[in-house]
Amino acid sequence: MISLKYFNLFLFLLLSVSACSDDDNMSTEMMGDPSNLSITVDVADDDSGNVVVTATADNATQYWFYMGDGTDDPFVNTTGVYEHTYETLGTYLIEVRAYGSSGRFIKASQQVAVQSGDPVAVGEGYVSPLEYEGMELVWNDEFEGSFLNTSNWTFEEGGWGWGNQESQYYTPNNATIGGGVLTIEARKENYEGSEYTSSRIISQDKQSFQYGRVDFRAKLPQGQGIWPALWMLGDNFATSGWPRCGEIDIMEMIGGSGRENTVHGTCHWFVDGECNNGHCSEGKGTTLNSGTFSDEFHVFSIIWDENQIEFLVNNVPYNTFSIVDATRSEFRGKFFFIMNVAVGGVWPGYPDDSTVFPQQMQVDYVRVFQEI
Q: Is 247 a catalytic residue?
C-alpha cells in the first residue's frame, strides 16, 4: 500500500430523498421515514489511509455506505459507523444512505481528496537574492499577512473557457494568504455550471512594468489536466486585445504523463498575415535532472531589456527570445502580471481518474528589479 502522508479534505453535502413507493406525494415525515441525516469523515494522520465515516439520522434502521473506490456493493450496518482504508490516491465521493422502517431512504454525500507526500516547507528549494549587481528592487509582494493586497491585485472571475477550452470557474474563494505564501487551489466541485473551481489573480491597472528582472518563487501543483501559470500581458490588452498586446509566459507547466518535471517559457505576439492567422508564438521548455516542480520551491525568472527576453529557472537560463525585429514591438511596452491554475484545456488535456484534487500552487514572492 502506498504511504499516505497527509490528506486534504473539502466537503460538499448533497441531500436528497428517494422514495421506494409509487406514491410520490407521501409525506417524508410519516412514521417510519428517516430524517435529519448528517455525516462526518475523520481521516487518520498515521499514514494508514484509514477513514472513519459516522452517520446519524432520526428513525434510521440501517445505514448503507458507498465508498466511491470502485466497489459496487455497499457496506451495511445499523450503527452508522464504518471504517475504511483507501489503497490508492484519488478523489472519492462517499455516499451514505439511511433507511427507515418504511423502506424509504435519504442520502448524503461527502467528497474526500486523498494525497500523499511530505508537506513542503516554504524554506525548501531555491531562494533568489534580494540584490543583483547593477539593479535595484523596484517592487515586490512577499504575500505576508492574511489577505491579498488589493493595491496590487484583482481577482478575475468566470467559467467561459478562457480561450483555451478550460474547465474551471475562477472565483476568489480558491485563493488564500497564510504562512508567508499565496495559495491558489484547484478543486473538483460543481460551481456555476463548471466541474472545477480555481483562482486567477491579475495586477492589471495596478502594477505593470517595462523591462527588468522578474523573479517568481513558487511550488507547483501536479496531475493530469492541471495547468499552473505565472505570466504577463501587455498593458494595452483592454484596447488592442490578444495577441496584439503581447504575452510573456514566465512559467507554464502542464501536468500528467510525467510532465511535472518540465516548465515552459513562451512569448505570443501578432504579425498580420503570418503564423496562425496572425498569432505567432515561440517558446522552449526546461526539465529538472530529478524530481518534479511540486517537490519544492523553485524560482522562475525573466531578464528583459529592449533587445531580448531571457527565461531562467533557479537562475539558470534556458531560453532567449529576441524582440529586436519591428514585428515584435509589443514587447517594448509595459506588461502586468497574472497568476492562475487552470484545469483542463487544449494543451494539457483534461483531468482523469488519476488526477487528485485539490491541487495547489503556492507563491512565496514576486519581485521586480530594474537597472540603476
A: yes
